Amino acid sequence: MGIIETIAEQRIREAQARGELDDLPGAGKPLALEEDNPFVPPELRMAYKVLKN
User: Fold this and answer.
1) Is 26 helix (H, G, I), strand (E, B) or coil?
2) What dihedral do alpha carbons 25, 28, 29, 31 form, nearest 10°?
3) What residue ranges do the domains of the chain occupy?
């Protein structure tokens, strides 16, 4: 793991310990990734949609 990832993980753990991440909007609800999944490249979205259906 690189230094950036290590620092990010450390800061996330510290925020969790302080309770800063306890009452975030949408906590405990599933992410709505059905239509515009930001992790699917734009050129593959139609193929993913066809395969899904």
Assistant:
1) coil
2) 80
3) 3-52
